[in-house]
Design goal:
Order of helices and strands: EHEEHHEEHHEHEEE
CATH topology: Alpha-Beta Plaits
Number of strands: 9
Number of domains: 1
Radius of gyration: 18 Å
Helix content: 10-25%
Structural class: alpha/beta
Number of helices: 6
CATH class: Alpha Beta
Strand order of the largest sheet: 6-1-8-7-9
Length: 204
């Protein structure tokens, strides 16, 4: 009896991130990136903790970045990968940067172009893993069958999110303790009540 083929997917588990930046170093080594990483680590709450989490493109099924591009420079492949802008078309207007709910696209002024994570399409399109997933020591970034990560982790993969009244589905999965779908990504819900106490240094 032959094994049933199962597609590989990309998973992010922020709880496992140790802030080593191996993903950034590996990403910058891609020949298409010319030494500039398309992944970066965010400090989740700089005032209270050193905890970090990786930010990569979530590859939305209906990408806002592409829908607001006046030059039609952002394309989505048939298998769901949202690519960086096409250089001959990109006008560096920053619409995509503003529209993305996950804060992923960046306008690189030197190239006058929007560049971002494309899930190492030159590798994944021929069956290889994205560079970042090959070096992550804690497997915060994981590329493989969904059934495998479900066996390895207690938290659950989710690719449905809400931002206010907007619902978004993505190609990339976020590992979450909350089994409810979609995951509520309203920034206000992530603000600790202690943040709004009088005396916090960033409150005006």
């Amino acid at each position: 009896m032959s094994d049933v083929f199962e597609e590989n997917d990309f998973f992010i588990d922020p709880q496992r991130c140790i802030g080593c930046k191996a993903c950034e170093a590996a990403c910058s080594e891609c020949s298409t990136h010319r030494g500039v990483p398309m992944i970066h680590l965010d400090t989740l709450d700089r005032y209270y903790t050193v905890k970090t989490g990786p930010t990569v493109c979530m590859h939305c099924d209906d990408p806002a970045c592409a829908s607001v591009c006046p030059a039609d420079a952002i394309k989505r492949t048939e298998d769901g990968v949202v690519q960086s802008s096409l250089k001959p078309r990109c006008i560096g207007c920053s619409n995509c940067q503003i529209a993305c709910p996950f804060g992923v696209p960046k306008i690189f002024r030197l190239q006058a172009q929007m560049l971002k994570c494309d899930m190492c399409y030159d590798r994944t399109s021929i069956g290889l893993k994205p560079m970042c997933t090959t070096v992550c020591p804690s497997e915060t970034l994981f590329f493989g069958p969904k059934s495998v990560i479900e066996k390895l982790r207690k938290n659950k993969p989710n690719n449905e999110f809400t931002f206010g009244k907007q619902k978004i589905t993505t190609k990339v999965y976020l590992m979450s303790d909350n089994s409810d779908a979609p995951v509520d990504m309203d920034v206000v819900d992530f603000m600790s009540s202690s943040h709004i106490n009088e005396g916090d240094p960033w409150i005006v």
